[in-house]
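Minimal example, chain plus inosinic acid.
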Amino acid sequence: MAAKLKSGDRLVVASHNDGKVREISELLMPHGIEVVSAKELDLPEPDETGSTFIQNAEIKALAAARASNLPALADDSGIEVHVLDGEPGIHSARWAGEERDFEAAMGRVEVAMCEKDARTPEKRGANFTCALSLALPDGTCETFEGKVFGTMVWPPRGDNGFGYDPVFLPEGGELTFGEMEPGDKHAISHRAKAFDQFVAACFERN
Ligand code: IMP
């Protein structure tokens, strides 16, 4: 992608998920970007018809860039539980239903894992994946992917973060994402790993 972002530019975060918008805004803060969310602009939410995180991130970024005439950054992400063949994966938000009830979604995952007899840490492996796409109003788009590996725990622990954070213990750690301070999650998360690649590729160097 030829175009580069620089301090002072305005960027749409193409998400209606407040937790994601907060994390992406925190990650963008040191770069002096003016962030506006798709929700604030009242942009329509496109159907996520892709079969991968990357396809869905691109659908969301391109739709927001066209509708707003601004560069747009979209995140498609989710948790992949290995004993469930990667589910809920791209359906992570849908497992929480219309009401976005993540306590229920975490419970659903736990029941599904117990049905597979996944009761010991070595059978409870999982990873978060994040695809981040930057799209421009002219229809160009570039995408970056990050993953973080760990173990599913039960019961949920901690009130920080969002979504499935309270049941995810990153590899080598003692605190779940739900128990960590935001800065500590940002140092290792799937979103931060995708974000580092995005910054390296899409920001003008001074
Ligand atoms: P979507 O990308 O908007 O379709 O939804 C992704 C869903 O995955 C979110 O609603 C969360 O439930 C889950 N998810 C993605 N990233 C995270 C994270 O960093 N922590 C916890 N849950 C996450």
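The longest helix spans residues 53-68. Helices lie at 18-28, 53-68, 102-115, 182-188, 190-202.
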